[in-house]
Amino acid sequence: MSHAVRLPCDESTIRSGHGIAVPAGAAGPRVLAAAILGSSLAFIDGTVVSVALPAIAREFRATAIEVQWVVESYALLLSALLLVGGSLGDRFGRRLVYAVGVALFTVASIACGFAPSVRWLIFARSLQGVGGALLIPGALALISASFEPGERGRAIGTWSGFSGITAAIGPLLGGWLVNHSWRWAFLLNVPIAIVVLFLLARVPESRDPAARRLDPVGAALATLGLGGLVYGLIESSQLGWSHPAILTSLALGCGGLVAFVAFEARTESPMLPLDLFRSSDFTGANMLTLFLYGALACVFLFFPLNLIQVQGYSPLEAGAALLPFILILFLFSRWSGRLVERFGARRPLLVGSTLAALGFFLLSVPGIGGSYWKTFFPGILVLGIGMAASIAPLTTAVMNAVGEDHAGIASGVNNAASRVAGLLSIALLGILLANVYGRELERSVNALPLDAGTRQQVLAERDKLASAEPPRGIPAEEAVRVRRAIATAFVAGFRAVCRASAGLALAAALCAWIWIGREPARPANPVVRRDPVKIERR
After folding, report:
1. Is residue 312 exposed (0-12), middle (13-18) or buried (19+ Cβ within 10 Å)?
2. Reported confidence tier of residue 340, pLDDT bands at 50, 70, 90
3. Taking a C-beta distance cutoff of 8 angstroms, is the pair 155, 32 a contact?
4. DSSP secondary structure string for all residues of 296-344
5. pTM of the complete model
């Protein structure tokens, strides 16, 4: 999940009040089916990739940095281009852009499925990110444009419910596929996409006659800024902070983001309207998103690695281990919506973020071995309840912080914030995991009765984290001790990540305390979208 867990509503850039809604009529079921199946491509893919990473690392003998790039290459392009994808649909046709996104995502999935090397896979994943940026905003945009206002709420609810079922099936389906081959996890997208494209052929086209102009300069600066930062952070663990390539990359990243903000403040048609951040509720909700969903994405990237590579779970068992979290989100979403109606958004966000922090901490407690129900399930349970208590209040805070005419772009900005959060947190906390792992491995290996050559060979494999193997030819007893040292070191790194994530969740609660509910509430928007399960997934 990660990395796969992409939680705020995928409602980006639905232009409230300007699009021309056409009566659904006979096309209504086709629109819903195309939106549900198309969304499932992204939902299932995110979950499957996180479960498939150990098998990918093993087949390609990939380093931890290469495994991170399998995730980050997708997240980078998706984060940078998500708002542009919604604008393209408004301007050139929502059905057309959605179909292009589905087709590109599918072609990239085929390239992933037949990847001969990890570098090929990373490149194909980046193409998936571009396709996702066109696909993800399109599902709800199609529904919004194809149903009359009186029918739209029910249609969105149907989409949301089926999306929750899809997300719940994802971990088990992904685990089952990876048990056969991780390549099938990507090739599964092909038949689904064919059905979606067939349905779209009979869906009416819609555009927004008042669509904002595109912002290619902003998209380029966002990509440069985020890409520079992520490259510098990830590669620094291998090249070192003082390496010229790292310094140059970080400088370009920071400069690109500063230039992005400056450009968005001056351009007439920004992809990120900075005026929205004059609202303390909107600012607080997006800061909370950065901290809370950054923590979630990072833990759910490394959690399957821990389960499969250290705890000995099969991919199917690892997928099943994630299922309680998704089911809690799905089942308790309406309950959290009632909390908003009774208490407002601030108090549920405070309680939800604090519970999420406790859940992250509980995930840091288990060592190696033990029953799932006594080790990881308590943390998954508390984390799920905390996130379920946070999702509807967060969505409501975002949507009610702005006027109706800006509801679509506000939702899109918040969704993009969640993607950026995962992108940056995986890079940053990946450094923490690698450093703690390296120190613990060196300490453990130096304490073992190994000759200097064997010790050096073990430490040379540290860049592979838990997928490292003992040197060939050493006695069986020594190999067992080395494997134990590798597993223990990874658990120490995972614990550090979980505790850092708990700190991020507490920072999210602090954001709610400082910003949310500090200004008069705007009248509620006609449709307050409460997407019960927002899993990406990446």
Report:
1. exposed
2. confident
3. yes
4. HHHHHHHHHHIIIIIS---HHHHHHHHHHHHHHHHHHHHHHHHHHHHH-
5. 0.88
